[in-house]
Design a protein that fits this description.
about 575 residues, alpha/beta, Beta-Lactamase
């Protein structure tokens, strides 16, 4: 079950209310003028009874006289929590799985404060839940140090709790048993208090600076949010044990940092952890949550990450198998864009992936081979990324997707692969395309003859720190010249910028012009302009995932002509 509200209207009811009607709510606590509300869901708080009720539908004139109907989600919190919630400036309410989440204005911090509550329907369920929590250790049965997957562990605990409730209190309904068992299973997990946040599809990244500090997280629509959730000195070693067991890698004084991926109830988490002596204040965590359904290029156009012209430019480049590097500072959405581009690669092409943390997605009916190598944090390498990049030469890929290029060794292996004729896409940290070239050139000692083999560099930005907005800042093509039979890097040409749009200022020695000549064409511009016109005229009807295949309909993307019917239909 999942509901999200924005601009929620809050109504407080008490035993002295003469009329429990929810009409004329503009004076209610938390109410906003209708034009300012993202939605008009109603949250009714009955403090003296200990209940809150959230309307499932958007209706400012919803009837509050009968709250025991299917139109309401009712949760028993107890009188004390209802009083606290009733006095808060609530900005949004989410129901995620078996939890109610409240986002409230903070009096001490920028951003919203997030609190979550397990969904229990009655005081009896409330009492039963707390009684089961006191017995929770008997259901865990030594699972934490097990290398069994977390999802299977939680499923086993939930089954044990369900069986216990059925045997001891058979009158509890099936729905209540399953819901309470799920909550108990989550609470038995060392990261259990974070479960409402980790289950929320809108959560992007969760942070813990040190054990005595509170968790905070980045939310896709609400920006940076704060919590009161903390871990104590007993929890930190449990988290370390969990990460070691699940990753089968080291996390100790001799190897004090670790990066791994965890699978949690159908959600992929990328976890980075550090411990002393590298982090002198104790355990540090960053947990990046991948969406269950990755962003498509259409989604990135719709949420203004990029324009339709930028999307067309990138699809045209992918169809021509350009060597593409996506760069930007941490948290700017590089992997999100890489996965979106991966979704438009023709399904028949054979793709090889080399990643230290699996962030690529399985795509139905696609030809995908994925390799997972040891992260740079691991001192005892079993498989190196640079070795696997070189091995791709013998695996006959149509495209190679390398994830993140981090070290000088990775960079040199990348350019060795380019020199051998592989076509690649990858991400790399930098604040700009020029900064990335300088890093390759000066820090990683890559010569200009190698840099000239790259085709396109896409730069992403996060305009305001701690906010969720990301944008494609610029797209540049790599220019190259030939001297004595050798290709060499000769500069960068910006062909798209966020403020200026598509520049149409193509360089004669740029990647697009060179690829057109290789295809026997005088210019790429006629085909590209036909593609943009077709895409703009049929954008709402187009399935972007098939457009790179459509570009090959006339034998080569450089031969594309505008079809009579909408693209991708």
């Amino acid at each position: 079950m999942e509901y999200r509200t924005r601009g929620v209207i809050v109504v407080r009811l008490s035993s002295v209310d003469p009329d429990p009607s929810c009409e004329c709510l503009d004076g209610a606590l938390g109410a906003k003028p209708q034009e300012e509300c993202g939605s008009d869901h109603v949250l009714v708080i009955e403090t003296e009874k200990g209940f809150v009720h959230l309307s499932k539908t958007i209706d400012r004139n919803v009837d509050c006289s009968n709250l025991a109907t299917e139109r309401w989600v009712s949760v028993y919190l107890g009188e004390e929590q209802c009083e606290i919630l009733g006095n808060a400036e609530i900005q949004a309410v989410h129901i995620i799985g078996p939890y109610l989440m409240s986002f409230e204005k903070s009096s001490t911090k920028d951003g919203l404060e997030c609190r979550s509550f397990p969904i229990v329907r009655t005081p009896l369920e409330f009492t039963l839940l707390h009684a089961l929590m006191e017995k929770s250790r008997q259901f865990i049965d030594g699972r934490e140090a097990s290398r069994e997957g977390i999802t299977n562990q939680l499923s086993g605990i939930a089954d044990a709790v369900t069986k216990h409730i059925r045997q001891t209190i058979p009158e509890v309904s099936l729905e209540a048993r399953q819901r309470l068992s799920q909550i108990i299973a989550h609470r038995s997990f060392v990261l259990g208090p974070l479960m409402p946040i980790l289950l929320d599809e809108m959560t992007e990244e969760v942070y813990l600076d040190r054990p005595d500090s509170a968790f905070y997280f980045d939310h896709q629509s609400l920006g940076r949010c704060h919590t009161s959730l903390r871990i104590d000195n007993e929890d930190a070693p449990r988290i370390v044990t969990l990460l070691r067991a699940q990753s089968n890698m080291h996390l100790d004084t001799s190897n004090p940092s670790l990066k791994t991926d965890l699978q949690l109830l159908g959600t992929s988490l990328r976890v980075s952890a550090t411990v002393p002596p590298l982090s002198p204040d104790g355990l540090n965590l960053e947990i990046r949550r991948a969406r269950r359904r990755p962003f498509r290029l259409e989604d990135l156009v719709e949420n203004d990450t990029m324009s339709i012209e930028a999307a067309a430019l990138l699809m045209f480049a992918v169809a021509n198998r350009f060597n593409v590097t996506i760069t930007g500072e941490p948290g700017t959405g590089k992997t999100t864009l890489l996965n979106a581009l991966d979704l438009v690669v023709p399904r028949s092409w054979r793709k090889i992936y080399v990643e230290d943390v699996v962030e690529s997605r399985e795509i139905p009916d696609s030809r995908q081979v994925r390799f997972k190598v040891d992260p740079v944090d691991e001192n005892l390498y079993r498989s190196r990324k640079s070795d696997e990049i070189v091995k791709c030469l013998h695996r006959s890929p149509d495209y190679v997707i390398l994830g993140e290029i981090q070290t000088e060794e990775h960079t040199k292996a990348l350019f060795q692969a380019l020199a051998a004729g592989l076509h690649v896409m990858q991400t790399c940290h930098s604040s700009s395309a020029s900064g990335l070239v300088s890093r390759w050139n000066l820090s990683h000692n890559v010569k200009n003859v190698s840099i000239g083999l790259m085709d396109l560099i896409v730069t992403l930005k996060r305009p305001k720190p701690a906010e969720s907005k990301r944008v494609v800042e610029e797209i540049v093509e790599v220019c190259r010249e030939t001297q004595n039979g050798m290709v060499s890097f000769s500069g960068l040409n910006c062909i798209y910028s966020r403020k200026g749009g598509l520049h149409n200022d193509w360089a004669e020695n740029g990647s697009f012009a060179i690829r057109a000549k290789e295809a026997g064409k005088d210019s790429h511009q006629p085909a590209f302009e036909n593609f943009i016109r077709s895409l703009e005229s049929s954008q709402s009807d187009s399935d972007f995932s098939v457009l790179c295949s459509v570009l090959w309909n006339n034998g080569h993307p450089m031969d594309f002509v505008q079809p009579d019917r909408p693209l991708g239909v």
